């Protein structure tokens, strides 16, 4: 049977692609922009903490709006606030380092609103059969924007004096966010049903033998790595080369590899391969970090980046698809899909905050490059821990028949 995506799925992919493109253009260099104003690892760690706290709380609070009112309004507001964030950065300029917490909270609220709406709509318009295909396309579009965006930004920034290039790129991102808002109006307004239960994430985890417990622990482990790697690797590339263009080149190469690997995963990676695929991906994600123990250079970072881009779909697609499949296992779970999306995000948030806490404590006490390298290796082992938590659940669901969402 041929698996395909509907018109609404394609439109949602388009809005997601524009949102991710705007983030790829500016987000890759945002921390470099702050670093050039104040070279302080801990400052960037706190900036990321403020974002993660805001994302998690926004998911939880906005869940009521998304479930009982208009989830499309949440998606549009999140996109608009992302544009407002870059408008604010343009306004405050190099003084942005003095407004780390307010800026981080603004960006976190924007991301939280967009992604809770996206995740709920994504669940509603996909099912178990085409979910891996949709996820593959999300990864593919993310890789394509990762190729174009940072390379273009790095080229522009490196050829313009002072911070002129940064201001231009932030302005371009602002325009793209506006276009994404316009595109979102072509998405149909989704039905609302039921009453939002604030305590549902905790109730689900408190049930004896709850299948959400191993998933939450797996997501926690994913978040531990993700929270730090999301900003540190790009920053290390800049620190190692002192060239924005090199960072753009790094993103171009690694995203090109990710484009191919996500395309292949979307085409051939089936539910029955999830447990083995996730294990192989987790091992590879750790192995490719080992060259950094020799020396942190552009070359060793590139080896790590290429290896991670190749392995990430094997690890991340089972994590995403397994969670959303669980939401469709019963009518009761489908009814609670918003609360379960919140549970998923809170699990990731706690993991990210844990990883960031370890990072901040480390750089405040011993901010040497060697210490950072060992921290990267330790945090990079957490996907294996995630697989340990998830393996039984993945094996249990392998080979099961289609379950409609």
TrEMBL record:
Listed transmembrane segments: 12-35, 41-62, 74-93, 99-122, 134-153, 165-187, 215-241, 247-265, 277-294, 300-320, 341-365, 371-390
SUPFAM superfamilies: MFS general substrate transporter (SSF103473)
GO cellular-component term (any): plasma membrane
Keywords: Membrane, Transmembrane, Transmembrane helix
Domain of life: Bacteria
Membrane topology field: Multi-pass membrane protein
Compartmental location: Cell membrane
Gene Ontology molecular-function annotations: transmembrane transporter activity
InterPro entries: MFS, MFS_trans_sf, Sugar_transport-like
Name of the molecule in the record: YQGE family putative transporter
């Amino acid at each position: 049977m041929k698996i395909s995506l509907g018109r609404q799925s394609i439109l949602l992919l388009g809005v997601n692609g524009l949102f991710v493109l705007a983030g790829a253009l500016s987000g890759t260099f945002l921390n470099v922009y702050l670093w050039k104003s104040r070279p302080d690892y801990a400052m960037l760690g706190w900036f990321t903490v403020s974002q993660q706290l805001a994302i998690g709380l926004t998911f939880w609070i906005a869940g009521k709006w998304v479930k009982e009112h208009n989830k499309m309004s949440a998606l549009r507001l999140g996109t608009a606030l992302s544009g407002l964030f870059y408008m604010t950065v343009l306004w405050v300029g190099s003084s942005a380092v003095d407004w780390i917490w307010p800026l981080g909270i603004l960006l976190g609220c924007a991301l939280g609103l967009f992604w809770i709406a996206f995740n709920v709509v994504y669940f509603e318009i996909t099912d178990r059969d085409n979910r891996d295909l949709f996820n593959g396309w999300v990864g593919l579009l993310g890789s394509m924007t990762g190729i174009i965006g940072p390379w273009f930004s790095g080229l522009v920034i490196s050829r313009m004096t002072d911070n002129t290039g940064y201001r231009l790129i932030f302005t371009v991102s602002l325009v793209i966010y506006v276009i994404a808002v316009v595109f979102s109006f072509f998405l149909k307004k989704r039905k609302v049903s039921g009453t939002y239960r604030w305590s549902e994430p905790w109730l689900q985890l408190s049930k004896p033998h709850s299948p959400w417990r191993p998933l939450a622990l797996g997501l926690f482990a994913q978040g531990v790595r993700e929270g730090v790697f999301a900003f540190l690797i790009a920053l290390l590339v800049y620190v190692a080369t002192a060239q924005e263009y090199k960072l753009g080149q790094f993103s171009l190469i690694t995203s090109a590899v990710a484009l191919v690997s996500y395309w292949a995963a979307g085409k051939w990676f089936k539910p029955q391969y999830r447990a083995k695929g996730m294990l192989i991906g987790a091992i590879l994600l750790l192995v490719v970090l080992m060259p950094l123990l020799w020396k942190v250079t552009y070359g060793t970072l590139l080896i790590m980046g290429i290896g991670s881009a190749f392995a990430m779909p094997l690890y991340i697609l089972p994590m995403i698809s397994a969670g959303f499949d669980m939401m469709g296992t019963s009518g009761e779970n489908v009814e609670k899909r918003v609360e379960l999306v919140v549970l998923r995000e809170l699990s990731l948030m706690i993991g990210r905050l844990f990883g960031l806490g370890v990072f901040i404590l480390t750089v405040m006490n011993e901010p040497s490059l060697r210490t950072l390298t060992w921290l990267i290796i330790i945090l990079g082992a957490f996907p294996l821990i995630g697989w340990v938590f998830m393996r039984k659940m993945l094996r249990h669901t392998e080979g099961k028949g289609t379950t409609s969402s």
